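User: I'm curious whether this sequence folds into something compact or stays loose and floppy. Could you predict its structure so I can see for myself?
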Amino acid sequence: MRSFLVIFASILFFSSSLLSQVRDTLKFISLQPADFQQSFLKEVNPLLIDVREFFEFRKSRLKGAINVPSSGNLQITADTIDKDHALFFYCTSGFRSKRVARNFYEKGFRRLYSLEGGIIAWRKEQLPVDKKRLRAHGTRPITFPAAASLSSQYTSRVYQTPD
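Assistant: Here's the prediction. I'll summarize afterward.
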């Protein structure tokens, strides 16, 4: 009986330390399409960020998304966004958005979400996609409050659909 209690206590100790490690390493929440949409709608002042390249963004995107290509200078973008925003990232398959979410976590952001399976999974769930094709001159750069001092080479890489 005594050995059983020692084994039980050991298992309990090790499992609790493993759980705390999982919580410490959780940097963002990866959500299925319906949960991603629901969480986005529940948040106050969220940002929906498409991390695909502009040529992908211009063909189809989630309504209201801004384009911040993962190949761009994410440091500049992270410095221009208020850390109080909830950031919802997506890409084609979910790989790039997870990488960007980890990057933003390292910059001090804590309310981070990634679309599991990307826009491919979103389409499979038959959720709405804006397919209106954009031309490069038909979009305008986003200017975050702190972006006024940035050079145009950085702000021109962040696009939002026209109103």
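Summary: The first helix runs from residue 2 to 25. Residues 44 and 86 are 8 Å apart (CA to CA).
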